[in-house]
Write a structure and sequence with these properties.
- Helix content is 29%, strand content 20%.
- By secondary structure, the chain is an alpha+beta fold.
- It has one domain.
- The chain has a five-stranded antiparallel sheet with strand order 1-3-2-4-5, sandwiched between helices.
- A hairpin with a 4-residue loop joins strand 2 and strand 3.
Length: 114
Amino acid sequence: MICLIKEPATDEQIQAMSQACGRYIKLAVDIERGMLAGGGELHADCEAVLLEVGSRQVDVWGADWYPAEREVGYESLINIRPRQNNRSMEIQDPAIRRRVAEVVRRLLDRTGLQ
């Protein structure tokens, strides 16, 4: 199940997004709008959800969230973008990585919210 997350996720949303991959959640993160889509088997499916609600592809980056470790992963096929100087599956620009992490942590890191 892919969830569109604009506000801090509920435990139920995190559980639903975790079903596809188990110990981590595949994400597409819109760094300009500060939102993400998570869950499903492919980052591209999450990206499609964001594009459907008006996100621009240049602003959407693939990532993973590991809830138990509270860590962000930065690798996805949707990140291969030679026109944006990202020639790898991993997000190379430290500023973009920081923005992705900020959005992911704000919306998915449940530590301190209970």
